[in-house]
Structures are given as C-alpha cells and as structure tokens.
Design brief:
alpha/beta; 40% helix; five-stranded mixed sheet
Length: 350
C-alpha cells in the first residue's frame, strides 16, 4: 500500500491531499474563484501569488486531517504539466523541497492523467482498458486508457474546450465567472429546444466529418449572433432558454462522440473527468445514451471533478507502486501531450 502526499497548483485551486492507493485520507482545496471573479477570469500572476500564500497551510491541514506524520508518507507528488507556469512552479518547488527534507521519492504528475484517475477514487475496482472523456476549461479529449501511463488520444476539440465555451457564453449573457455552474443552474429553468444551435462538426480533407473531434468556437459565435439578433429586434433575451439550448447542444455533441468512440473501439466503460463532468446536462445525456448500448458510464464525485490533489495523489501512488519516480531536476511545462507522460519518470534503480 503506497501513501502519497500530493500538491496541485496548475491553475486557480491550491490543493493538497494524502492518498493511499485509491483511498483518500485527506483532501484540502482552497479555491481562488472569489479572487479572480472581479477580473472575469484567471489572472496568472494573481494565481501564483495566491498559491504562495496558501500552499504551506494546506500541507499542514492535509497532514492533520489524515492524522499522519512524515514517517508514514511514502512519496511526494505535484502537478508539473500542463498549466500556468508560475502556478505550477509553486507546487512543484514545495513538493521537491519536502521530498529532499524528508528523504522521500518525488513524482511529477501530468494534470490530465490526474483527471483520469479521479474516477478511480469512487470506483476502486475500475481497471483499463476504458475510454476517458476529459472535459474541462482547458481540455476536451477522448482518451483510450490502456494502462498506467499508456494513453492514446482518439478525439479532441479543435478550438475552444467545452469549459472555455461555457465561460465565454456566460460572459456573453452577463452571468459572470465561472460560467459552468451558473449556466447549469439556469438551464434547469429553461427549454433545451428553445433555440436550434450548431453542433460544431470538424470536416475531413477527404470528405465527411471527423467522428470524434469536436469544435465549440462556432457554437459560441452562434449564441453571440442569437443574442445580438434578439436585442436588435427589441426582444428581451430569454437567458434561461439560451443557457438550456447551449448546454443541451454541448452535451449532445460530447455524448454522440463518446458513445461512437467507445463502440468503435470495443470499450464497455466511459469514465468522465474534468470540471464539466459536474454538468447535469452532460450527465443526463451521456447516461441515457450509454444505457441504450449497454455501456457503463462513471462520473467522479462532484468534489473530484474540478481540480484537486486527491486525483494527482492517486495517479502518483500507482506510478510509485510501479517503480516510477521523477528526477529532482524535473521542470514544469505549460503544455505536454498526454502520450508523453512517461517522459516524467525514471524507473527506480536507474
């Protein structure tokens, strides 16, 4: 049994957790949303400073909550890519320092691999192969999970990520930041079929459309034009109906691609991760469609959909159990493809 203390500071949550394999001993999440709301989005420099002010106390709280001391920790992990460089450096530097001071193995973890592992926290019996649908503010991908550290991207967004589209549409509707939760709440009061919006297909050079890739930029523009036309006609914008129609279009688009991908590759399980995994419209659409094809759909608990350190610790624990550690010379990267995960590690003994 491997116990890891993990730190996640890739964007606007300062998170520290202690995980024993797939069991969470403690999880501390200090959100910066109230700080960034006044700017309408995440300001990288502000995020980095907030992490600096918060990370030490979060580490102390995680140890207290888990009722563990350093002798009971087997490894120290931190998100190293992708993310905001300044923010990542705060967590990575803290983790390296702890690893050196307490003479523990150090592991740098890929943020998206963490989102894949979020589902393991509520479904300990889950094992590869399966399809992972990652949907967040920065990423929208369909990942073939073959094994720990072995991933193949089968589909992805060609422009805006799903969560990014939610934020931009919320800004158009003057709903504030972050957009996902407020649009989801408003959509409950609206009619999903009130407005017909484009799904956003990706054309292939040879003709036809890509079966798994998505595009949300055109959908965002369609909402803008809809709002502009309503205002031009002197009509009040039915915000709840627009929110419901937009959310339903995103959910149907993601569902269609995930189901097709799972069936084409013979995978019977779809595990959803990322902030948009908390969206009620996506959960309803995907579960209904999956049941028609006898597919299993797994969603993490809401607290593990958004960025958290428990998912990072879960991924790190499996890597450490497999004999993988990272060198203390490991740096941060703002971008790193998921299929490059194993570049972060070296086998013990090398």
């Amino acid at each position: 049994m491997t116990t890891v203390l993990a730190i996640e500071t890739s964007c606007d949550e300062t998170a520290v957790a202690i995980v024993n394999n797939r069991q969470v001993y403690s999880s501390i999440i200090a959100s910066q949303i109230p700080v960034h709301q006044q700017y309408g989005g995440v300001v990288p420099e502000v995020a980095s400073r907030q992490h600096l002010e918060t990370v030490n106390q979060a580490i102390v709280q995680a140890l207290e909550q888990a009722k563990l001391n350093w002798s009971e920790i087997d490894g120290i992990a931190a998100t190293c890519a992708p993310g905001l460089v300044g923010a990542l450096l705060v967590g990575l530097t803290a983790a390296k320092t702890l690893a050196m001071v307490h003479n523990k193995p150090f592991l740098g973890v890929h943020h998206l691999e963490g989102h894949i592992y979020a589902t393991y926290l509520s479904e300990p019996s889950l094992n590869p192969p399966f399809l992972s649908l990652l949907v967040s503010g920065g990423h929208t991908s369909l990942i073939y999970v073959k094994d720990c550290g072995n991933y193949e991207t089968l589909g992805q967004t060609r422009d805006d990520a799903a969560g990014e589209a939610f934020d931009k549409v919320a800004r158009l509707l003057k709903l504030g930041y972050p957009g996902g939760p407020v649009i989801d709440k408003l959509a409950q009061q609206g009619a999903p079929q009130a407005f017909v919006l484009p799904e956003g297909k990706v054309s292939l050079p040879s003709g036809g459309f890509h079966p798994y890739d998505a595009s949300f930029s055109g959908l965002k523009t369609a909402v803008l034009r809809l709002v502009q036309q309503l205002e031009k006609d002197g009509r009040q914008v039915p915000v709840a109906n627009v929110a419901a129609s937009f959310q339903d279009t995103v959910a149907r688009s993601l569902t269609k691609r995930a189901i097709a991908c799972a069936l084409d590759y013979g995978l019977d399980t779809i595990a959803v991760g990322g902030g948009v995994a908390a969206n009620s419209g996506l959960r309803k659409n995907l579960q209904a469609a999956a049941s028609k094809h006898n597919l299993r759909v797994l969603f993490p608990p809401l607290t593990f959909c958004t960025d958290n350190a428990a998912m990072i610790g879960c991924a790190a624990a499996e890597h450490l159990s497999s004999g993988h550690t990272s060198p203390l010379t490991l740096g941060v990267e703002s971008r790193l493809a998921l299929n490059q995960v194993m570049k972060l590690y070296q086998s013990q003994g090398r």
